Amino acid sequence: MKKTIHVVGAIIENEQQKIFCALRNPHMVLANYWGFPGVKIEHGETPAQALYREIFEEFDCMIQVGDRVAVTLHEYDTFFVHLETYKATIVKGVPKILEHAEAKWVPRKQLLELPFAPADLPSIQKLLAEK
Q1: Beta strand pairing call for 3-12 and 79-92
Q2: Residues in a beta bridge with 34
Q3: Integer CA distances (angstroms), 121 to 26, 32, 52, in order
Q4: Rounded to an integer, what distance in angstroms lies between the CA atom of residue 115 and that of residue 131?
Q5: How many angstroms separate the CA atoms of 73 and 105, rounded?
Q6: pLDDT for 53-92, tens place per residue?
Q7: Strand, coil or helix: what is 113?
Q8: Residues 124, 108: contact at Cβ < 8 Å?
Q9: Rounded to an integer, what distance in angstroms lies between the CA atom of residue 36 and that of residue 9?
Q10: What does the angle CA 5 – CA 59 – CA 79 come to, to the nearest 5 degrees?
């Protein structure tokens, strides 16, 4: 029986309508895929608390978490991911790469040009459908 991992992702958008994307390093699960910064929810945490913690720990900045964008259940080879994505904005600091291989701000319309992890694709489709 495959394990299900509950994770949350932050769709951080700036004033230029560019979205912050991070490339997983070769030692991470789903290595070398792009994704929205995210984390497994720890016991007793809300999705917003988990995202705030993750962005602070891995990118040294603070965010404000907004509305949920999508909920996705995706099956990978050895596990399921239950992914919730939320819009977010940076309220303090500038993201620094502390654990990922690379990070960059990407215009919405160019998101699909990056090789995103499959569980992120429904969230991207919702973003592209917004006016």
Answers
A1: parallel
A2: 23, 116
A3: 21, 16, 22
A4: 24
A5: 26
A6: 999 999 999 999 999 999 999 999 999 999 999 999 999 9
A7: helix
A8: no
A9: 6
A10: 15
